[in-house]
Hints:
alpha/beta, 8-stranded mixed sheet, 3-stranded antiparallel sheet, 17% strand
Amino acid sequence: xxxxxxxxxxxxxxxxxxxxxxxxxxxxxxxxxxxxxxxxxxxxxxxxxxxxxxxxxxxxxxxxxxxxxxxxxxxxxxxxxxxxxxxxxxxxxxxxxxxxxxxxxxxxxxxxxxxxxxxxxxxxxxxxxxxxxxxxxxxxxxxxxxxxxxxxxxxxxxxxxxxxxxxxxxxxxxxxxxxxxxxxxxxxxxxxxxxxxxxxxxxxxxxxxxxxxxxxxxxxxxxxxxxxxxxxxxxxxxxxxxxxxxxxxxxxxxxxxxxxxxxxxxxxxxxxxxxxxxxxxxxxxxxxxxxxxxxxxxxxxxxxxxxxxxxxxxxxxxxxxxxxxxxxxxxxxxxxxxxxxxxxxxxxxxxxxxxxxxxxxxxxxxxxxxxxxxxxxxxxxxxxx
Length: 385
């Protein structure tokens, strides 16, 4: 069952990449180019933040603005944003100091402030570690030119690794997250919406009350996408790949980040969360070899390990478009066991730390701020059955 589910996911991902290659040869079918507001909430100086921002200055699109949100002028991101604006006076880029108390979710608190000053017909929300190509906006605008579509999410690839932690995270994105998103898009009428890079119309957002109604959850992108879908619109996944830059993060940081995401998935899709290990055939085969140690199970483990490694390397190659280091092969096996470790941690705790903000995570990814003194009690808390 595990091999079948994994193979189906990879087959759907491969089909999406084939379709992407055909789409890249086509010109965007857009009658006009509406003004776009790119909303960039920043907090801290992420890996290669300056270079990531510079990629937005090279976008080939006639009318867009970049609104950079920073919660505090003392934040290191503020100085980076100022240098970016100074280097690119020809583009419409502004820095807005936002109110961190506008919403429990720090990112949404910034988006609320950016929404007030945005002048575009379309809003593009983009995280700080995203790097884009010159046709980035055209791909999103082309999808939204269909009046039936209300929200568009970009598929993304992890790139830039120089440490083991960053390599594991990028491999997880390329061989696990991206194929999962593409497969979900292919089989579901309600595809996933990921806030790494997504676009929607300003008027639709205003009709839904803006960003404020999603400020009480961690997965604001998921809830915003569901609100758009419930309003009668469709969601699309853009196959114009954007880069999620992970360069120098430690192994500890990678584990903490993926544990947080696992906790979020558990709060949103409990049933789906509990079957996630089935998408790691190496883990399932390892469990079988431990429970029924014999030659047949050992052979099965070897075959499954080779199959999953080859599929992971192919997936990373397809989405990144360039070669990989040889050590990605054994790293895929390590990634599988690290993913299981993060999943197990998510089973026993609902406490998260997000950019220095401690929360308790309730069902539906509702976040409850907690004081640091509550850490001991929160770490042992579990979800109600």
